[in-house]
Model the fold of this input.
Amino acid sequence: MQVAIRFQNHLLAALAEDDARKLEPWLELVSLPRGEILARAGQPFEYAYFPLNGMISVVALVSEGLGAEVATVGNEGMMGLPILFGAGGSPFHVMAQLSGEALRIPAAKLEAAIADGNGLSTMLRTYSQAFFVQTAQNAACNTLHPVSRRGARWLLATHDRAEGDTFHLTQEFLAFMLGVARQSVGIAVGDLQGRGLIEYHRGEMHILDRPGLEAASCECYEIVRAEFSRLLGVARA
Done:
């Protein structure tokens, strides 16, 4: 693996060279097509993923076939925290939401790498706190805030990880991620578009006014971003 590749992930880039060298023989560069399932609910994680670009979603599913996104991961972090805590798996689905690339490592190799309490172990524990804040804030947001503000927050988080101002997104998928009816999302998207903040056409979302979209979002986006900056020294971008 070319050493420069790992610097595209902020966690790997921040590692001391000794810790990074221990990991590098086990890191494999993989493509993550949009929609690919990386881990299924109730099944052990086979790999941990350090995204280089793109976006990974953690989705909670219920028996009625409905779901909602509980967290996202881009190149600021890692997907596979259950491995860190010896939990194996989780009750959530993990899927690639935006196409991208990641460095993945077998679960057993990651467990061995953190066993001696090195810099990687410390960093992942710190990252787990930031990730917990994100999931907790998302839960509060989904309960307390209207769909239009939640939608703006979600679009900002996606825009942070997209390589440009335009990305593929259907209203059906956005409704699923937010755990609301398709009609509610249509109204919210129409409102944001009417205010000149976004342009949406046939599954293509284009961000026109980033500052305006931040103003339209609830405070949850900034709370999470500030926590990532405080703990890890990097915004979610």
About this structure: The domain at 3-141 is CATH 2.60.120.10 (Jelly Rolls).
